[in-house]
């Protein structure tokens, strides 16, 4: 069994309040929350459960029930970790960045390796 070594890559430097810019240079929004990977997250676990012993119970807090995001997508984000971005614009809502979609973190900016329309919503 592999021991979980904690967060790797640029996600470890992301903090709430940072600006998020996509690969095309367009502002996506502002970091609202950062959740690191959960080595105990298991496929098929109900992310809506509020049981404290559930290793991905905190995911339920991060996603609204009416977001339209599939359970599979929520479970994937629980396993990988994610950055929740408060989207730019009045009606844009939240989007979610996977650690592998972060190209760099410098100053107060998170630069993505993908366009904003490729993010989970």
Explained architecture:
With 121 residues, the protein is of the alpha+beta class. The chain has a domain at 10-41 and 77-118: Roll (SH3 type barrels), CATH 2.30.30. It contains two helices and six strands. It is globular, with a radius of gyration of 14 Å. The N and C termini lie far apart (33 Å). This is PRC-barrel domain-containing protein.
Note the topology.
Layout: E1 19-21, E2 27-36, H1 57-62, H2 71-80, E3 81-87, E4 94-97, E5 102-106, E6 109-112
Parallel strand pairs: 1-6
Antiparallel strand pairs: 1-2, 2-3, 3-4, 5-6
Task: Report a brief summary of the structure.
Helix content is 13%, strand content 27%.
Which features would summarize this protein structure in a list?
2 helices; 121 residues; six-stranded mixed β-sheet; globular; PRC-barrel domain-containing protein; alpha+beta; SH3 type barrels; 6 strands
Tell me the fraction of residues in β-strands, as a range: 25-35%
Number of helices: 2
> What portion of residues is helical?
10-25%
Q: Name the strands of the widest sheet in spatial order.
A: 4-3-2-1-6-5
CATH class of the domain at 10-41 and 77-118: Mainly Beta
CATH fold field value of the domain at 10-41 and 77-118: SH3 type barrels
Radius of gyration: 14 Å
């Amino acid at each position: 069994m592999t021991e979980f070594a904690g967060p790797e890559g640029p996600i470890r430097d992301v903090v709430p309040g940072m600006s998020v810019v996509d690969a095309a240079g367009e502002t996506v929004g502002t970091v609202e929350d950062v959740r690191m990977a959960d080595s105990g997250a298991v496929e098929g676990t109900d992310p809506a459960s509020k049981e404290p012993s559930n290793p991905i119970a905190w995911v339920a807090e991060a996603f609204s029930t009416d977001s339209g995001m599939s359970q599979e997508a929520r479970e994937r984000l629980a396993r990988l970790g994610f950055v929740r971005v408060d989207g730019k614009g009045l009606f844009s809502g939240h989007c979610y960045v996977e650690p592998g979609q972060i190209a760099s973190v410098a100053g107060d900016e998170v630069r993505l390796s993908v366009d904003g329309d490729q993010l989970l919503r």
